[in-house]
TrEMBL record:
Belongs to the peptidase S10 family. GO terms for molecular function: acyltransferase activity, transferring groups other than amino-acyl groups; serine-type carboxypeptidase activity. One of its GO terms (biological process) is proteolysis. Keywords: Signal. It holds the Pfam family Peptidase_S10. PANTHER family: SERINE CARBOXYPEPTIDASE-LIKE 7 ISOFORM X1, SERINE PROTEASE FAMILY S10 SERINE CARBOXYPEPTIDASE. The lineage of its organism: Eukaryota, Viridiplantae, Streptophyta, Embryophyta, Tracheophyta. Residues 1-22 form the signal peptide. This is Uncharacterized protein.
């Protein structure tokens, strides 16, 4: 519970700092001693015709040479996971110092491996409804991947107009997980815009994606060959699966009982593994749904209640990864419930 409260307080400070205006410079944060040693800006940008859809962002200038270093836009997956998780849990300049923190105040520390050592980064809450991005109309929440990519491109155009000194910097679109679907679409939007002469012209050089979702069939069908390749699945069962399922393990015909029975055996082999990282322990905290290890893509639906997460005792051993997306979801529910946002 202490971890969630720390996360909650820090996010609240950041978002309240930017509500009064479209952008704000954050110089200090509770739990971090003194001034931040990097430039942190938060703000909103309207991305539809009437600016009813407002996307929230965190921007951190490169700690090396902002004028010449690349500019990276970071999109967290989900869809619907706040980019704040990428900032504090993945590639940003801050992380929590759990050993020095308590339930009253988080202690923040610098991340020595932050990508902002070499690049300026925009962490964007997208699509609308993610994190602190919102719409003034109900219609604004009608969203799909194509529209989201278009709005992200609009965000970049407006952001660069408001930050002209970054217009000539090399630009990369980056992210993880579900953003593997969105990022190539955003890059295509940028390329099309450049070809059409839209301003500002973006110096797009490529994209980087970690653990990306690319295609439902390809991604999930590859799990069984991978499980065999790393020695989890026996040669015998792997060959039985290949023969009975004809190499297709997703959306299987239920009348193919040999295949479905072999898939059940496969599920038994992996049900005690943490599928996101097989070398780490699988904690009850992360998988309250006993069916979470099946071939279906995991989602927030396996969190049955907020209390389930809050009631888990925090133990130093064994170490358990806290999935930032799920924590972010719970934090925002807590904030809304208490009327703070």
């Amino acid at each position: 519970m202490g971890t969630i409260l720390m996360y909650c307080r820090l996010v609240l400070v950041l978002v309240l700092s930017s509500i009064a205006s479209s952008q704000s410079i954050i110089k200090t944060l509770p739990g971090f001693p003194g001034n931040l040693p990097f430039k942190l800006e938060t703000g909103y940008v309207g991305v539809d015709d009437m600016d009813d859809v407002q996307l929230f962002y965190y921007f951190i200038e490169s700690e090396r040479n902002p004028r010449d270093d690349p500019l990276l836009l970071w999109l967290t997956g989900g869809p619907g996971c706040s980019a704040f998780s990428g900032l504090v849990y993945e590639v940003g300049p801050l992380s929590f110092d759990y050993a020095k923190s308590d339930e009253n105040l988080p202690t923040l520390q610098l991340n020595p491996h932050s990508w902002t050592k070499l690049a300026s980064m925009i962490f964007l809450d997208a699509p609308v409804g993610t994190g602190f991005s919102y719409s003034r109309t109900a219609e604004g929440y009608n969203m799909n991947d194509t529209l989201s990519a278009s709005q992200i491109y609009t965000f970049l155009r407006k952001w660069l107009i408001n930050h002209p000194k970054f217009q000539k910097n090399t630009l990369y679109i980056s992210g993880d997980s579900y953003s593997g679907i969105i990022i190539p679409m955003v890059v295509q939007e940028i390329s099309n815009g450049n070809d059409e002469g839209k301003e500002p012209k973006m110096n797009i050089q490529g994209y980087t994606i970690g653990n990306p979702l690319t295609d439902h069939f390809s991604d999930f069908n590859s799990r069984i060959p991978y499980t065999h390749r790393v020695g989890i699945l026996s040669d015998e069962l792997y060959e039985d699966l290949k023969e009975s399922c004809n190499g297709k393990y997703v959306d299987v015909d239920p009348s193919n009982t040999d295949c479905t029975n072999n898939l059940k055996l496969y599920t038994q082999c992996i049900n005690k593994l943490y599928s996101a990282q097989i070398l780490e322990p699988k904690c009850a905290l992360l998988s309250p749904n006993p069916n979470a290890s099946k071939l279906d893509r995991s989602s927030l639906q396996d969190i049955n209640s907020i209390g389930l997460l809050l009631s888990q005792p925090q133990k130093p051993e064994p170490w358990c990864r806290v999935i930032p997306c799920r924590l972010t979801f719970l934090v925002f529910i807590m904030l809304l419930t208490h009327g703070n946002v």
